[in-house]
């Protein structure tokens, strides 16, 4: 009798889902020498425009993934359009509008400028980069059917969609990047907390050169948000897919709406405030809700991206948050597999990323819906134009504040060393500063050699010794070596842009977040020893 059971393949990490987050994670791991297999159910990228606004922080990821030039070359809209938008009242062509989410305002605090292109173009670039890495094997056109795990690893059974051929893969860890309906999350027994706003939303993709002409009065804008009293704080949302021709549109529609029983042309004309020619390319629907997994890890199974968190496409937070998941989890998995990261370091992925996304929901997305609802109830340009105009002007300043306040940080992380005893929490809410702060993203700075510090950061931890070489620097180097933590050292004397860090020592993590900062010139050897134990995930009360 012939045994048809497929021979298990061995790999370090099995990634289920090859959208942007899964692809990014595979690149992050593959570049670190970690062997991965990525399985994606679709053989080709899906041509639905979404996830288009890529922030400055996301473009730092693409720099480190070796794919930034290729991504910028794939752009479908000229750079002068940026990724900024406009908010209007009533209709796009009304007299009430202001700039919204102008993320270029925080450009000085990041190494790279932002970008905008459809998600399917981003995925093509990531697929091309992934194909260059011999450490990663891709299985496009395969579904994940079953996942089991034990103390030493996990086993995934895959089925090829076209042939129904099965394959079993044995790995040390599994990461589900398989979307908001994630089978990986369900099989791992990870529950979600759902917040259903009970709204049916339509997604329209259409062509219209006339709309481009109508919106020429708003130069340099890539997306447009319409507030209307009847929507009670929910948005009508237009976005450019390319320049002058293709658009997408999200908006609430009545429950029970189908592609055939609703006048979408009229809806679009009312939203713009003028009639224009429309050629529909796609009509689809989705339910507006927030979902946050109650944990991001279950044993040897992790989830990332939409599998871990999903929300309405407001503000471009989704795909950028997913990429940050990939960077955060990637270096920690590599550290564990390479032997210098402990299990608690893997736990810190959940402890850092989950509260940040909870804050993104509460402090930014859901809050904006509630704020808009209250505004629309309180102010009406027909009822009291003067009061409305004053309140509208105040809103425009609040839009600027939102960009500055969205600064995800890990101040409450167990693998970040806070020098002062205080109440710290991981949050999406913060402030952009050049000063180096533990738990926060490192701002760029030009070194005395003319290079940016981001060009000199190592693959592991990086020590910025901002007083030059000293015996104390060697204390830190020896402590890192004793803990097995890979360390790159950058010696920099005063007089360069690094002075604005206001620190003598800065330890930067592999994901460019500051792990520890000190203004002291002398280093206590015991502190250095405890510091690196903490950064690799070893529990030690003295590290607090």
What does it look like?
The mean pLDDT is 91. The chain is an alpha+beta fold and 544 residues long. Strands 1, 2, 7, 8, 9, 10, 16 and 17 form an 8-stranded mixed sheet that branches. An 8-stranded mixed sheet has the order 5-4-12-13-14-11-15-18, with helices on both faces. The chain has a 4-stranded mixed sheet with strand order 22-21-23-24, covered by helices on one side. It is built from 12 helices and 24 strands. Helices cover 30% and strands 26% of the residues. α1 runs parallel beside α4, α1 runs parallel beside α8 and α11 packs parallel to α12.
Summarize the structure.
By secondary structure, this protein is an alpha+beta fold. 30% of the residues lie in helices and 26% in strands.
Write the layout of secondary structure elements.
Layout: E1 9-16, H1 20-31, E2 36-40, E3 53-54, H2 56-64, H3 68-73, E4 85-89, E5 97-100, E6 115-116, H4 119-130, E7 136-140, E8 142-149, E9 154-160, E10 166-176, H5 183-187, E11 192-207, H6 209-214, E12 223-227, E13 236-240, E14 246-253, H7 264-272, E15 279-293, E16 297-298, E17 301-303, E18 309-310, H8 318-338, H9 343-378, H10 385-405, E19 406-410, E20 426-429, E21 461-465, H11 471-483, E22 487-491, E23 505-508, E24 514-518, H12 525-535
Helix pairs in contact: 1-4, 1-8, 8-9, 11-12
């Amino acid at each position: 009798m012939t045994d048809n059971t497929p021979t298990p393949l061995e790999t370090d990490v099995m990634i289920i889902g090859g959208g942007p987050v899964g692809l990014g994670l595979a690149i992050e791991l593959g570049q670190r020498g970690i062997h991965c297999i990525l399985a994606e159910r679709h053989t080709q990228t899906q041509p639905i425009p979404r996830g288009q606004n890529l922030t400055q922080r996301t473009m730092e990821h693409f720099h480190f993934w070796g794919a930034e030039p290729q991504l910028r070359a794939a752009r479908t809209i000229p750079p002068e359009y940026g990724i900024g938008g406009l908010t209007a009242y009533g209709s796009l062509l009304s007299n009430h509008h202001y700039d919204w989410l102008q993320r270029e305002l925080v450009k000085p605090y990041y190494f790279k400028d932002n970008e905008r292109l459809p998600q399917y173009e981003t995925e093509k670039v990531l697929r091309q980069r992934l194909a260059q890495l011999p450490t990663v094997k891709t299985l496009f056109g395969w579904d994940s059917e079953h996942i089991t795990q034990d103390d030493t690893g996990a086993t995934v059974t895959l089925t090829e969609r076209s042939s129904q051929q099965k394959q079993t893969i044995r790995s040390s860890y599994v990461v589900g990047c398989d979307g908001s309906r994630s089978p990986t999350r369900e099989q791992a027994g990870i529950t979600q907390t759902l917040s259903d706003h009970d709204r049916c939303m339509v997604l329209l993709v259409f062509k219209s050169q006339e709309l481009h002409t109508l919106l020429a009065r708003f130069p340099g804008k890539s997306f447009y948000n319409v507030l209307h009293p009847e929507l009670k704080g929910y948005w009508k949302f237009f976005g450019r897919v390319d320049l002058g021709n293709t658009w997408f549109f999200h908006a609430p529609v009545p429950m029970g709406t189908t592609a055939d029983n609703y006048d979408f042309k009229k809806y679009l004309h009312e939203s713009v405030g003028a009639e224009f020619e429309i050629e529909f390319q796609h009509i689809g629907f989705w339910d507006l809700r927030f979902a946050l997994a109650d944990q991001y890890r279950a044993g040897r199974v992790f989830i990332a991206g939409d599998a871990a968190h999903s929300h309405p496409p407001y503000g471009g937070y989704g795909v950028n948050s997913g990429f940050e998941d990939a960077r955060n989890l990637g270096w920690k998995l590599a550290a564990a597999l390479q032997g210098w990261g402990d299990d608690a370091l893997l736990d810190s992925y959940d402890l850092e990323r989950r509260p940040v996304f909870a804050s993104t929901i509460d402090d930014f997305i859901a809050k904006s819906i509630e704020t808009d609802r209250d505004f629309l109830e309180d102010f009406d340009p027909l009822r009291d134009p003067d009061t409305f105009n004053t309140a509208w002007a105040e809103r425009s300043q609040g839009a600027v504040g939102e960009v500055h306040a969205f600064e995800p940080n890990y101040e409450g992380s167990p693998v970040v060393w806070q020098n002062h005893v205080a109440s710290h929490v991981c949050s999406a809410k913060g402030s952009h500063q050049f000063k180096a702060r533990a738990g926060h993203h490192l701002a760029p700075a030009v070194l005395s050699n003319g290079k940016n510090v981001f060009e000199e950061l190592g693959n592991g931890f990086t020590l910025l010794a901002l007083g030059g070489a000293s015996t104390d620097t060697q204390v830190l180097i020896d402590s890192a070596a004793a803990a097995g933590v890979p360390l790159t050292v950058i010696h920099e004397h005063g007089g360069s842009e690094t002075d604005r860090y206001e620190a003598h020592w800065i330890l930067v993590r592999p994901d460019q977040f500051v792990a520890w900062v000190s203004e002291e010139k002398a280093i206590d050897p015991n502190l250095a020893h405890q510091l690196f134990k903490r950064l690799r995930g070893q529990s030690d009360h003295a590290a607090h």
